[in-house]
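Record pair follows.
FIRST:
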Amino acid sequence: MDEAEPRPSVIVSHVDIVYRVYAGARPGGGRRRGGSRRPNVRGVREIHAVKDVSFVAKHGESIGVIGRNGSGKSTLLRAVAGLVPPTNGEVWADGTPSLLGVNAVLVRQLSGARNIYIGAQALGLSRAEVDEIYDEIVDFSAIGDAIHLPMSTYSSGMAARLRFAISTAAVPPVLVIDEALATGDAHFRARSQERIQKLRERAGTVFLVSHSASTIRSICDRALWLEQGELVMDGPADEVVEAYAASSERLPTQATPEEPEVPGVERWAGDSRYHTSVRASRNGTPGRRDTVLLASGAHIPLALSAVPVATTAGAPMLLTPPKKLIPTTRKELERLEAARLVLLGGPEIIEKGVRSGAEAKGMVVEHVPGEDPVSASLALHADVDDTDGVDTVYVVPDEDADAALVAALTARDDGRILLLEAEGPRPGHAEVLERIRPRRVVVVADDETVSDDVLEELGRHATEGAVRLLTPSPAQAAVDANESFGPEQGGRVYIASTVRSTVADTFAGVAVARLSGVPLLLVDRDEVPPTTHTELERLAPSHLVVIGGQKAVSTGVRQLLAGYLRSDEPEPGADVDL
């Protein structure tokens, strides 16, 4: 039986918003030529900011709003939040929307702590409920002891983080975000996106105004395109963003600086993690494949944990938005002629829209069951037993993408990766380990993250017990993996990034490198780490491929990489435009 259709959360019906702007009197009191005075009249000018806009939003949707500056985006969402009354038409909301904007102001003269209570109670929480979530709000905002100081002493980033934490802690039925994700460092932006995803999972509706196409694509399943106050397009986020980008005015942050040609050093990148995943697959996986593994781009540690299984099965891995199969991914599945598509996680992780999109193209679709990343990582190994000769099982925290990356780089084809939540092992961990009976368990975490007691408990199910893997950085892990792999000198080498905010692009590099048997090395965005430098000199590659955009690996590093190429003529590029 199909699930009940989500109920509407916001209805916007034929809304017009007209501002009346009053012009001041002329300097000098409006004196006429010849000395006489004319009346000191203030002129009135009307601005039609929103013109006959209608749409229906439903619970669980995340809706991006795009358009040029002055197109009416913020005005429309202020009307949704109840801050601007429509001149004509109606706005109906199920509950009280919460507006989060970088210019929103609480009470600057009061402390952050006091503002937590003011803001959360304004969202409908009782004081007792605020008491329960107070510590979580402070921890998420990451402003430390400054929480007891007046907000007037905060930097803009501190204030924005606190407002975001307050606005999202209450799980409002409708959350309106106006460029809030543009503030803070990359780590906070990533945490913000994860928090929005969790909000959606709890049936909230999110509206997001952003100039970043990649943000709209990664967070939103639907988009509205406004132009001069009119609704030009309403549909799937990828389709709307692509249509907008193809118009005469592109999203400002989508226009990346042109790079000079670097002979022998390609770049495979797209304007989102999903497009980069497809480009890496299309260029690095020739020919057809019977099976493709599709992972959610919202759960990168889970995707990385599946790399050894996919490699053993000879199956390419692609990332997908959790709610739908985007056209770019569908085209790559058609190119691979995949008859069988395996979705990594149950409908709670990859929803029915992805499945139906694949089935419409005649593919057989299966789900690895699991309502969360940990249960999905356990289910991925449900058919593995000790006869399969698994040597090592790596255990990584379920939210630590760096640890999952180290494990994916380190694990050979005879290794497996399990995710572990902060609360410790589930009964399923013991069941899987008892069935596999690996030689050893390797925990990629320190003793503050995974205690010695948990380490010992996991080790009981391995013939040689459990150990920790602490020292290697991802860059060092990539070098160590190449040394054990034993690549020949003078061939192709893939390059990905250590930048946390672009770890999804690095995943694409790991997946295609392991499947194709091509060495993968990691660099920082703006420099080549010493360990990678030494390995590149040893390998003396004839051709290099950078996987990820300029936010992952800068143009300067790409040019620097050319210096590691052997003097032979580089092999021709195989880049394919999407």
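SECOND:
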Amino acid sequence: MEAVRSWLASAGVPEDRIRQSQGLSWLLFNASVGEAESIFRTKYHSWTHEESGKIHVACDEYSLPANIQKHVDFVYPSVHFDTRPVPRSANHNLKSRDARDVRGPYRGWLPKAVQAINQSDLSFQLADCDQQTTPLCLRALYGIPINNEITEGNSFGVAEFTPQAYVPYDLDIFFSNFSRRLLGQRPIFQPINGAINQIRNKSCLFNCESNLDLSYAMTLVYPQQVTLYQVGDLLGGASFNNFLDAFDASYCEGDDPFADAIYPDPTPGGYKGRSCGIYEPAKVTSISYAYNEHDLTPAYEQRQCNEYLKLGLMGTSFLVSSGDNGVAGNYNTCIDADNRLPGPDATYTDGSNGVFNPMFPASCPYVTAVGATEVKVGTDIARALANNRQPERTLATVAHSGGGFSNVFDLPAYQAQTVKDWFKTHPPTYDDSLYNSSQNTRGYPDISANGANYVFSLGAEWDLTYGTSASAPVLGSILTLINQERLKAGKSSIGFINPAAYAHPGVFNDITTGSNGGCGTKGWGAVPGWDPATGLGTPNYAKMLELWMSLP
């Protein structure tokens, strides 16, 4: 800081025009365009976005003295053109957002292929879990007990990004059939950056994710309440960084104005406040959204990943869906082999070919990436479990369990031997150009749970849906119940679970069939032990509880 301050002073910027950000990670100073051009040896210009009319100030290049470069990550405004301007009028149609607007991960990540069913066709039998997944099926598959108590200090959070929103009467329709104790119950609403639970726009685009997440999370842990972190106002949207800001005020100061929504929002009708460090993080937090890892810069992702590390050390378990397109990314896209430059200018194929496209934050080594399975067609799970037969396979119907290897993050120590053993025992046959074959990067998912044929209510009608969007809240519910038992015993919450999970793979139900295709390939196959299709397997509540109750 002192070196940069001294350099600015020598360049003619007086001390009273320089200030340090609250988070201590930025030096901010006011300067005229002429001064800035002189300091950074550049020429600034302004550009006007054709559709939104938004003016953007930037330069083509800039310079820093050699002794200053090592202290500065980047200068803003300067060469960054990765903004995704959207229309910002008060009458903005939410459906018109750019599909690759990185400030809102809600697009391209919704539950897949909603299929309508009749009320009379709803099943409450375990024999039908291959056709309809209900709370009854999940309790049987993973041994989830019915909860009857609330433990002080326990908490379970679900993150949703505006304009995704739940519809209250859809929750009650679900509860009236699968958990009558919950009729009239609602999640604890924690708005971030002016968020509201908008129900003006009603369709799967706006309600599928929230309705699905909350219906199952609330049912599986009741009477423990679920906290809804609703992120972003209707105009500005939100990113994962905007979400994390609400837990850590200092983290606010490092937000990227091009990848994160800006609050206070200067546009007419935008939220004029900013949610920084206003909430306590839940003991377990489920996130059913993601970006392509390739959409963002490695520096941006590393900074965010470190924040998950800090929150994990504080006792929060972050669970993130691993993706619904196998080895492909959002919208079933693959990285263009001829342009592998990550960030806002990344180019993608239509998914029929190209380089495998890993997901973020699933690829961050400090979250638990959750893949998906499905009950094998024609399988009565009660009979299968009674005969010690695995009733599930890798999810590959409609959606495909996301998995693969990061292009950004190193192989974490807790996973190193497991991944190396997988490469040795099941050497990939794909050309090295298709994926990161170094054997030195993070592999995911870590754990899976059922992600097929989920029954839920949408617009007062019954539907079936697919995806890892469903599996993350299910695992979150299980960890919340384990935290309950630990807290009752005077222990802390389990926090970041991956090191213990990889050290004790026997507490999971191993999935050994199916694969997660994509990018014109069959993807990765499920095999005995960990694999980049289903991870370590699916939860076994009794074994997981025994493990974590045995730990300090």
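COMMENT: DSSP finds 14 helices and 23 strands in the chain.
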